[in-house]
Protein 1
Amino acid sequence: MTESAETWELSDTEVFTKYGDVFVPRRREQIATVCDLLARIPDPHVLDLCCGEGRLSEEYLRRTPEGRVTLLDGSQEMLDLAAGRVAPLGDRHTLLRADIEDRDWRTGTTYGAVVTSLAVHHLDGAGKRALYDDIHAMLAPGGVFVMADLVEPAGATARTLAGDHWEQAVREGSQERFGGDEAAVAFEKSEWNYYRLTGPDPFDKPSSVAEHLDWLRAAGFAEVDVVWMYAGHAVFTARRGGN
Ligand SMILES: C[S@@+](CC[C@H](N)C(=O)[O-])C[C@H]1O[C@@H](n2cnc3c(N)ncnc32)[C@H](O)[C@@H]1O
């Protein structure tokens, strides 16, 4: 997986939109878990950070008749796909083209929740810490941050297991979805399995579960937790106090 705002080219977009349901392990379960964690937010306006095709937003809007979303992504192609996906759910979305690393979009609006999936691992440690500080400030009192993302295993054994689980999930998903190994071959060819990479990856910089928990607490969040994890993919939740 080697995308960034500049390098996430159309071909990569096409690969992810075609095979994402297989490449993302237990994707439906992850999306449902993220949305389950939005049950008690103080304001139904949710920011979907690096929204891609808008899968999280789609599920949130489907569950929440009063819900509104702001879809942020660096890729216009992805924003167009996301807009098409959520449009049937009513005029309840705003599109925002921005780079996750910029700070301009982090001021001026308050949200009941910020959600993100498979994107924050592009930031280095300092970038993640700054993002968590800024998200805390953007949330209404009682608001929640929910993040699904790759994490860095704490040791070699856990890394091998994450890679094995991911590969197995993709092989099974490929059979179910495509009736053969088409998606599994694309996964292999595109070297999507971060846990199989032998050298440093300039685009993917996952941090450990412990680091995320520490940084979220340091940003001022309460109820900081990991509620789901499989194949190196984890779902974190954190609540801003005051409600
Ligand atoms: C792997 S996709 C995940 C999309 C979606 N969140 C999901 O889980 O299906 C990563 C997304 O992050 C976006 N992205 C990558 N780097 C970015 C950056 N620096 N700023 C904004 N968006 C970025 C890509 O355009 C892409 O839509």
Note: The pocket of S-adenosylmethionine is lined by residues 3-5, 8, 16, 20, 50-53, 55, 73-75, 78, 99-101, 117-119, 122 (CB under 6 Å).
Protein 2
Amino acid sequence: MSLQAERITILGSGLVGSLLAIYLAKRGYQVDIYERRPDMRKNRVAAGRSINLALSERGWTALEQVGIRKQIEDVAIPMYARMVHNTDGSLSGQPYGKDGQAIYSVSRGGLNCTLMDCAERFPNISIHFNQRIEDVNLKEKQFAVIKEDGQVDRINYEILFGADGAFSALRAALQRTDRFEYSQSYIEHGYKELTIPAGDSGSFLMEKNALHIWPRKNFMLIALPNQDGSFTCTLFFQFDGEESFSRIKTKAEAHDFLNRYFPDAVAMMPHCLDDFFHNPTSSLVTVRCYPWSYEDSACLIGDSAHAIVPFFGQGMNCGFEDCRILDQLMTEHANWHELFGAFQLSRKPNADAIATLALNNFIEMRDLVADPHFLKKKKIESRIAQLYPDQFISAYGMVSFTNIPYADALRRGREQNNLLEELSAIPNLDDDILSAMSKKILK
Ligand SMILES: Cc1cc2nc3c(=O)[nH]c(=O)nc-3n(C[C@H](O)[C@H](O)[C@H](O)COP(=O)(O)OP(=O)(O)OC[C@H]3O[C@@H](n4cnc5c(N)ncnc54)[C@H](O)[C@@H]3O)c2cc1C
């Protein structure tokens, strides 16, 4: 069975667009990618700015499928646990999974460059940089390309994928079609990046193999390790309100705030005040829409179809999984219309589920990881996992360490949470009671 097309056009050579191109090129299609930014590989310094992402099992599976896992593994740092920095200055490590299970810190720019390098090794992939796409005409199968010098070309396409992120030009065109469902919602928190530089000769000033969290109820700081010994920290904080970005106007106010809540981190951040005022405050959006495709010619993929908040570290992983599932469905469908229909039907419930899981995980990370009731439930959960290592897997584990559909992870996670609430209310809980009651959530 083969889907007919001479050329396939992709908008965006970000993480998902680049990986999608590789999947399509392996199937023999001629692929053209239009990217609005310049080629970040020609300016490695900017590309390598230490902004990092957590890569987990779904991402690895999708990379492995096209044979590029190894290149990325070489530059990924395993994070085996959350390292919680408590308000009293103490640290507590909470392993993410069983022995050896980890999520991996990778540089966003480095990963994107590697994916583009891998893509350009295929003679049938061309990436066109500095080409901003606007005004997609779905009926005419045509879009406008705005070049660096402002010149505008119109290009025809046969099959178009929009991998152009949360503010997609293809999605903007779909929004003007009849019965297109669309919502975007911002959370009241924004984020700002700060840096803990490397110590002497590139040493790590904190535990290297952990994702560090400073949960402070309504807001939090996190830090992920980089290859060069530094950590990229992200402060998630309200835009407005009594304690908020909008209330911090001077270096003295920033100094007071950071020292009050994160003194151990500040001690390792000599440039935090400059970073605080120099780095932008960015917003966090969840985008839900449907359908993702138009007839037999255009389809959204990655953030353009389902941008989510970053608290489960799954946006990119979900986009990579989109590519793997699309590729799998390509073997089962003979025409593009059917393929796009099957793809969106299969992915939409999972995209919705990870959007919900990601919003819930913000509350868990910023508030609950230091909450005694939550910790009690975690302890019971660990005991169930010890008693039934092959039959129990936590919701976090399903999302991060397996390819179980997100919608199943959400549903099973809710069942588990209900049981953990029941169990945590039992006074003298022992293994017999635990075993008897856990049966319903084992596989
Ligand atoms: C603070 C933060 C932390 C995150 N952490 C994680 C994490 O730990 N793990 C994880 O899995 N995910 C994480 N994510 C989510 C992840 O960044 C996204 O899900 C991922 O980047 C989506 O990839 P994409 O290729 O779909 O979109 P993008 O990465 O946004 O790429 C879109 C590409 O399209 C190009 N483009 C856009 N518009 C046009 C246009 N009109 N014409 C031409 N080109 C265009 C852009 O320049 C870009 O190259 C995080 C997100 C944020 C904001």
Note: The pocket of flavin-adenine dinucleotide is lined by residues 11-17, 34-37, 53-54, 132-133, 163-165, 169, 191, 234, 302-303, 310, 313-317, 319 (CB under 6 Å).
